[in-house]
């Protein structure tokens, strides 16, 4: 009797697959939008993640929701980083630049939706991480006099904007240049 090959059947795991699908969609979004920018079709994210479009829209009804999910992970990384007492604003901005290099499409998207409450929440968490670092650094005398949280936020915006405007092949170089400038601005004045 010949061997019969059963067709592969994808089993629908229902709600149990939700968290795994969400993680797969976020990872796929990072890849798709890093490669093609915001012009990539939203459906491409679902395809790359290996899930149906229904699953994509259940988790992320629009591009902003997806961008916020990506930045929720980024902010979590930044908060953990900032909680280490050995970290400085310079270290923090290095990580921000690294994240910006691979998240430029999301930066553009969130910059266009700054009034969205989901985006404001991300901004508030970012500000708290910066405040923690600045307070600790100021207490040790390692912050230039007169520098405050808003200065760091402006530096971050400038850093992210220049990286986002640069073609992918030049982003790492531009990020390195921008970091050098920011590092020199955040050095305490020597007397």
TrEMBL record:
The keyword Oxidoreductase does not apply. Residues 41-60 bind DNA. SUPFAM superfamilies: Homeodomain-like (SSF46689). Keywords: DNA-binding, Transcription, Transcription regulation. Residues 19-78 form the HTH tetR-type domain. InterPro entries: Homeodomain-like_sf, HTH-type_TetR-like_transc_reg, HTH_TetR. Gene3D superfamilies: Tetracycline Repressor, domain 2. PANTHER family: HTH-TYPE TRANSCRIPTIONAL REGULATOR BETI (PTHR30055:SF234), HTH-TYPE TRANSCRIPTIONAL REGULATOR RUTR (PTHR30055). This is TetR/AcrR family transcriptional regulator. It comes from Microbacterium alkaliflavum.
């Amino acid at each position: 009797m010949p061997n019969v090959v059963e067709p592969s059947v994808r089993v629908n795991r229902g709600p149990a697959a939700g968290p795994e699908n969400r993680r797969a969609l976020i990872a796929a979004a990072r890849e798709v939008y890093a490669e093609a920018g915001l012009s990539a079709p939203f459906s491409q994210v679902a395809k790359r993640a290996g899930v149906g479009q229904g699953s994509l829209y259940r988790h992320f009804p629009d591009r902003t929701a997806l961008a916020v999910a990506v930045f929720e992970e980024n902010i979590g990384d930044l908060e953990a980083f900032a909680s280490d007492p050995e970290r400085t604003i310079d270290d923090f901005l290095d990580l921000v630049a690294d994240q910006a290099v691979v998240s430029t499409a999301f930066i553009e998207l969130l910059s266009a939706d700054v009034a969205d409450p989901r985006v404001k929440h991300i901004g508030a968490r970012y500000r708290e991480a910066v405040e923690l670092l600045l307070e600790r650094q100021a207490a040790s005398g390692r912050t230039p006099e007169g520098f405050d949280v808003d200065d760091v936020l402006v530096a971050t915006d400038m850093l992210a904007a220049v990286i986002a405007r640069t073609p992918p092949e030049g982003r790492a170089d531009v990020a390195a240049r921008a970091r050098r400038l920011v590092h020199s601005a955040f050095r305490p004045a020597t007397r």
